[in-house]
């Protein structure tokens, strides 16, 4: 990106004060200093810049509802078929619901720039860090490994929205994969295959590094072993599993989802509601920290503090949960006579004064079971282990188990993904990579069907990027 033209690049986050004396606490705090790329003079500076990379996920349009809405978290459900506009709708992410995003749309532009902001941070972390490898190799591994994994993850998030095709060897347009800190660069879009190549290379490199670090990544004075705020090798396994199921690399999806499953058991029925109150870390693989004063999660759908429901869940979704299914009451609440999304109500310590500020659950073991079940089922001849994984999840959630095979089994897995992962940033992409047709039936007069050939399956490249970068190509139809 030629970020000098698209946005005013002023500085990068770095922690100050106590963070200079105790970098172990850095992920728990918001950075307060800024630093330019030429000011890094020690490996600890790189460590603190990594804190800024994490913080950038919280302070833009990706997950936390700032600067245009949490496109990554709420957007995929609004753009799909899980919610319809309520009487209190204030226009939150209507652009996504109506599929009428254009190149000059601020919502999609904010998401694009927000993701590349995180990527720029990770590239500053890696710039020049190798000079410390001879003397502090395992510390470099810990810092650079996290940076590479986060860089890959952000590029994959971009690929999900901006690519038309997820096939591993697709020659259609992917995204610009930015690996160096240079605000003057104007990178072209690689193919989908080339984008996957770089994502996979970064994740594999990160996994190697994070398997040999100077200290435990999760267990620090500020982040206990029961929390999952940082990226470690387990998180990378989960990232790889998700990437591989999208890319239809089924054996690899099975391999890496199994590694994650073996490391983090599913939550019990008693533990499950506590996940959403941040009262337990059961089955959490990566749960990004949020603090009082941060933006509420999912507020584009339901704003807890104002009791305002811009979007209401469709009956086709809520009716999927039986009375014994622990997900129903954990995910939805009845407020002033209507059912609303209650998944992001509050931390347990704020239950009496709900604010919607809870940690972002980016990866959970449940998703790994569903990835492995889907991979088994799609391979053919492996319905038995696929059904075993699906029933293991259904049983522990209190839902009825089944005996599906073949196409019915694959449909049941996608239904379970819809139930389990609602408002966690998946539904639109699950339809895109499988059925690729959206049919809305409840309270729908317009914007009811998204055909497989519609341009809206991929976002447009922002106009600001088109104007600034002579090497970038727009998506078809825009």
Anisotropy-based shape: globular
Listing every helix as H and every strand as E from the N terminus to the C terminus, the arrangement reads HEHEHHEHHHHHHHEEEEHHEEEHHHHEEH
Strand arrangement within the widest β-sheet reads 1-2
Radius of gyration from CA coordinates: 21 Å
| Cα distance spanning the termini | 20 Å
Helix fraction? 40-55%
Strand elements, count = 12
**Helix segment tally:** 18
**Biggest sheet details:** 2 strands, antiparallel
Beta-strand content estimate: 5-15%
Quickly give the structural class: mainly alpha
Low-confidence stretches: 2-34, 220-225
Q: Average pLDDT, to the nearest integer? A: 90
Descriptors:
single chain; 478 residues; mainly alpha; two-stranded antiparallel sheet; 18 helices; 12 strands; disordered N terminus
Fold and architecture overview:
This protein has 478 residues and is mainly α. It is built from 18 helices and twelve strands. The strands form six sheets. It has a two-stranded antiparallel sheet with strand order 1-2. A two-stranded antiparallel sheet has the order 3-7. A hairpin with a 4-residue loop joins strand 5 and strand 6. The longest helix has 26 residues. It is globular. It starts with a helix and ends in a 10-residue tail after the last helix. The N terminus is likely disordered.
